[in-house]
Design brief:
Layout lengths: L5 H15 L3 H22 L2 E3 L6 E3 L6 H9 L1 H6 L2 H18 L2 H9 L8 H11 L6 H16 L4 H14 L9 H14 L14 H27 L17 H27 L18 H26 L5 H13 L2 H20 L1 H16 L3 H16 L5 H18 L4 H13 L11 H9 L7 H29 L17
Length: 512
């Protein structure tokens, strides 16, 4: 793409605007300041609503009242500690850090791509990209350069390999064939938002699984078609050799095979152990014998957080011991420490996000706005699919300028989750629609955290590859994924399909 083209100039302008945005911490500070001002005005104006379940009249409360100021200053540690996603994501990361740093995630992605025929390279790499969502940033630094080399070795354009890998890792981030860390984080935020109307419904890390898995399976042939019929023909033929040093295994093939074999056995043992705890006659601590229906499985769903942590920790440890990356228990502790260190930015944002959500609850603005907003939406007589598609489009627009999905959801969830609950939409379905919208522009916005990393990886193959070049490369995927997600959200809610185990698309608390 010419450097002086109108498209390039517009993309440069978008990049400057994105870089001019404040840090998410200061975005939350701004939201808190706005929330305080709105709460004061709402209290003065007497904003209120009648709770559709209890019949109680809810009134807006000023955050500058003596009671709320006292809560802010005396409950600050509790507010931070009680932020639902905080404990969940830190527990899972303890194990994921070991699996990543021991080389297990890298080995799984590398081994999975060997022996794949030229014809099926695109769907195979996209599938590995979907599965690599558990590997966090390891997928970017391992799978993307690996895909470029595999495509070049097969006589195909390396940028087509970069494109399909990036699409699977980031563009299809709303698709998850295997639930993991991000599901825990997002549904934790959703649960705290749903609690603004009263006791939160049962939410679990599998709450979006049916939707995300279906989305992933549908996107495999769609992105295959886009890559092989639209993206790669535009790139032409590549004849240059690959740059040096783009692919280095951390272990020799024999050790890698031994480590993966032992890690696989460990994974089966852990899965069997959890099955025993849920199914063993007379001893089923993961089943609530006193409950009925899906509620019986609530202990099992809650245990999945510990399950993911143990799975990653044990399998990563065993793999590392086999290949030599883990020589003693001290290495494991060091990996866990380093993994939690990478969560420091999240911890800083979580402090302010926790206070925003808590202050939102203290002000009563959430339920008041939700009830009145739901009443207005109901008067418009919009179909449920239309409401969720509007949410999807709104989150996709925000994704162009704010990179953090959890930060955006922390700000939006206290409003949209209760509002749509009152209109009969389950919290899980609302979360799925938001996640779909949030992932559409991940691969074409320069403000995305890994956009620059992918750009640098591409520049190893062509030094003049620019921002506009990467956006032009990925835009067909972004359009295809967005249209697919929009249609799927409409179809899912129109047919009222369950979003996950024990998670219907509709919620049994509509307005009377």
């Amino acid at each position: 793409m010419p450097a002086n083209s109108k498209t390039q100039k517009w993309l440069d302008r978008v990049e400057r605007w994105g870089n001019a945005l404040p840090d998410p911490v200061f975005i939350f500070l701004g939201l808190i300041a706005l929330l305080v001002a709105v709460s004061v005005a709402a209290a003065q104006l007497g904003w209120s609503a009648v709770h559709p379940v209890t019949g109680a009249t809810l009134t807006a409360s000023s955050l500058l009242s003596a009671e709320n100021v006292r809560k802010l200053l005396t409950l600050m540690p509790e507010t931070m500690a009680d932020f639902p996603p905080l404990g969940l994501i830190l527990v899972v990361m303890l194990g994921a850090a070991v699996a990543e740093r021991s080389g297990l995630f890298t080995a799984l992605m590398t081994r999975a791509m060997r022996g794949v025929s030229n014809r099926f390279l695109s769907p195979a790499i996209f599938l590995i990209g979907l599965l690599s969502h558990q590997a966090a940033d390891a997928a970017y630094v391992v799978l993307i350069p690996l895909a470029a080399i595999i495509f070049a070795a097969a006589g195909r354009h390396p940028f087509a390999g970069i494109a399909i890998a990036y699409a699977g890792i980031s563009g299809a981030f709303a698709a998850n064939l295997l639930p993991g860390q991000f599901d825990v984080l997002m549904l934790g935020i959703t649960k705290s938002a749903a609690a603004l109307l009263g006791p939160a419904p049962m939410l679990n890390p599998l709450g979006n699984w049916y939707f995300t898995a279906a989305l992933g399976l549908i996107l495999i042939p769609i992105t295959w078609l886009v890559n092989d019929r639209i993206v790669e023909p535009r790139l032409g033929v590549w004849t240059d050799p690959p740059p040096e040093g783009d692919m280095e295994d951390i272990a020799d093939p024999a050790s890698q095979r031994k480590g993966l074999r032992r890690a696989g056995i460990a994974a089966l043992v852990i899965a069997l152990a959890f099955a025993v705890l849920a199914l063993w006659p007379g001893y089923s601590p993961l089943i609530d014998a006193g409950a009925t229906g899906p509620a019986r499985l609530e202990p099992f769903y809650s245990s999945l957080v510990a399950g993911f942590m143990l799975l990653f920790l044990v399998c990563g440890w065993i793999y590392g011991a086999a290949v030599g990356t883990v020589r003693s228990h001290r290495d494991v502790v060091k990996m866990m420490t380093e993994g939690l260190a990478t969560m420091t930015p999240f911890l800083v944002i979580a402090f302010f996000a926790a206070h925003f959500i808590a202050m939102f609850a203290w002000s009563n603005l959430g339920p008041v706005m939700a009830i009145n907003g739901a009443d207005w939406l109901r008067a418009q007589q919009l179909a449920t699919p239309v409401m969720l598609i509007l949410l999807l489009l709104m989150s996709s627009v925000f994704d162009l300028v704010i990179g953090s999905a959890s930060a955006k959801w922390s700000a939006m969830a206290p409003i949209v989750v209760p509002m749509l609950m009152l209109l009969g939409v389950s919290p899980e379905m609302t979360t799925a629609a938001y996640r779909m919208g949030d992932s559409i522009f991940n691969i074409v916005t320069p403000v995305a955290s890994n956009f620059v990393l992918v750009l640098v990886l591409a520049q190893r193959w062509r030094a003049d590859f620019g921002v506009g070049s990467l956006i032009a490369l990925m835009l067909p995927f972004s359009i295809a994924i967005g249209l697919t997600g929009l249609c799927l959200v409409g179809l899912w809610t129109g047919l009222e399909l369950p979003v996950g185990p024990g998670a219907p698309a509709t919620y049994a608390m509509p307005l009377p």
